[in-house]
Design goal:
Blueprint: H1 2-25, H2 37-48, H3 59-76, H4 80-101, H5 107-122, H6 124-127
Helix pairs in contact: 1-3, 1-5, 3-4, 4-5
Length: about 130
Amino acid sequence: MKIFHIILRIGLGLMLLIFGLNKFIWFLQDFDFTGFPQAQYLFDAFRYSWSENNGNGYIMALVGLTEVVVGLLLILKKWVPFALVMLVPISINIVLFHAFLNIPNIGPAIVVALINGYLMYRNWDTYRTLFT
């Protein structure tokens, strides 16, 4: 069972590292938003608001940086409970984006949220003092 948890932690870390770096380098193909113009509009607004010379947005860069940091922390097994807490708002927003705007591409979002929730459950003793 220990090997399974290591695989989940490193797999989640690699997924976050890849998707986080993609927000800076854009080496992966974008999701297909055909038939979902609201999702395309919001995604483009976040993507292009900071990368152009006149863009002053910060959301996509902040999300990408957070994903990279959390991914590295999970891969290196440093501050894992902290990394999992940092990931909660991002995983919730990814799931809600796809649930409300682009349901066909919700698969990876559900995987990230479930693995995050499971790993938090496995580290629950660390979080117990937050709820007392």
